Amino acid sequence: MPSTCSGLLDEGSYIEELKKQNNELLNINYRLQRMIYQTYSLYASLNHTGHSSPDINNKEAYFKTITALTSTIDAKDTYTRNHSKNVARYAVSLGKSLGLSEKELTGMRYGAVLHDIGKIGIPDAILNKPGKLTEDEFKIIMGHPSIGASILAPIDFLKDSRDIVEHHHERYDGCGYPFGLKGESIPFAARIVGIVDSWDAMTSDRSYRCALSREKAIRQLEDGSGSQFDPIMVKTFINSVISSLSS
Ligand SMILES: [Fe+2]
Q: Please, which of 9, 77, 119, 196 could form a disulfide with 13 given CB 3.0 to 4.6 Å?
């Protein structure tokens, strides 16, 4: 029987919760089929009319359908619901504090929402495995940035956002994946998403642990400053973004 951060569910609540989740999954499945159909139709129509660069309305429509796909990733685990949207919100705030232009912030929003889209290609049994992953399973998980980058590869207007998807698990010290890029050779926007992705993961409840307090999460960011994360960005995030959040 699953537990929550407030305690164990009793049997009746557990069955109710299962029923609710089952209905939600049926709805998601239906929406997913519709979205895939709309995405392909839109992409096919853009190609058919010879648009190499879709207009702003089509970009937004296309982005919405792809974004909706990411909600299916979040929905695989109720604990990670809204993760992609939260990451986008934090990434845009940090990007603003670091002086990015409006155009760069738009690319940031797209890339941040889509950062884990490659998880679509990872089996659920591995993504949601409650215990420790084997080395082989971890290697499969490590494939999600490259899978995501290839999903976005044919979409011209998401060219800038692709860097975020492909490099959000690189580490500042070069020990990340998929390429082991180091320091400023990691694309700027991907360094931003690396920080805010960790922040949202630490400050949200997960199936295997409750959310960390803000103080503990800040300490973890500081511990990773210069090794996992870009130190200047960590400082800006703590001083400008976190300090402006209501507690
Ligand atoms: Fe990821």
A: 9
